[in-house]
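re: ur question from earlier - yeah i can do the single chain one, its not a big deal. heres the input i used so u can compare w yours
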Amino acid sequence: MEKLRYQHVVEIVIVIVGSVILGWLIKKLIFPYLYRLTHKTKWKSDDLVIESVGKWVVFWFFLAACFYVLPIFIDTFSFARANQKVLRNFLSSMYILSLSIVIARIAAGMLAIRTENDDSILPTTSILGNIAKAIVYVIGFIFILQTFGVAIAPLVTALGVGGIAVALALQPTLSNLFSGLQLIASGKINIGDFIQLESGQKGFIRDITWRNTTIETAQNNVIVVPNTKMADSIVENFFLTDKKITFNILVGVSYESDLEKVESVSIAVAKEILEKEPGGIKEFEPFVRFYNFGDSSIDLKIFLQVMEYADQFMITSKFIKALHATYNKEGINIPFPIRTVYMKNEKE
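and the output i got, formated as tokens:
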């Protein structure tokens, strides 16, 4: 009867337990030191590499122990002896699989880090990260097949023929995929941009996936738009060239008002608001344009500029309150429509 000898059992236990403990000690003692070193550098790539590798240290030491004790099982058990090549290939494939996972995570992370540091690089989206991961996984899968002695050339030919049928069946999905890549490659729509769709909906671009583009509105709702429709739509991008927004506020003053005074007071209030409120462009010179003789007022527009689209709402609120108080103080009247009704008293 096949049976491990006592010294072999002891050796196996010592090797496996010792390797796991050694890997755990390295992870708990050495890697924290490496983390501190990488945090001191200005590059984020080394942090990503150390963090990704650190998660697999114990597993790799365990696989190394399995390689070490495998000859003992081969010499003792006939089943292991008959399948020793399969067992060795299996352990090798575990190394390849774990390395593929680490490299895929590093590749996707490097892409995101490079994008943050260089505006000329394609914007980071889940679709680009997933494509990078898929490429690494496919290469790793090919190496695993080669490890088991599977011929790659016939498999690639079969996949090429079958891929035509799959492409026809998944035509809408592939259309969305390539439309998403087109959106990213064009650089006209980037993650974090504030846009307005031709339907009138507004929001921030949060992600471009393999199927759709997600837009977060000011109400914290999410708009999901298929990439094909997004590529064919007319989209207004408020952040493409410059995030600064120049907007105007409509005001009406009475016909008895001194328009020169109205203009100077309005500009002074606007400049004060832009200088002290967050989001306002302090260097911007507000200006006034009178544009209409209304039914009960002379109408004007006061132009201001803010850092981003969302900043205009708070600035508008602050400006209206300050302008109303200043107009009252300066005796400038903001009229409201008045209708005079003449009653004709006729004798019956």
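Confidence is low (pLDDT under 50) at residues 117-122. not sure if urs matches, ping me
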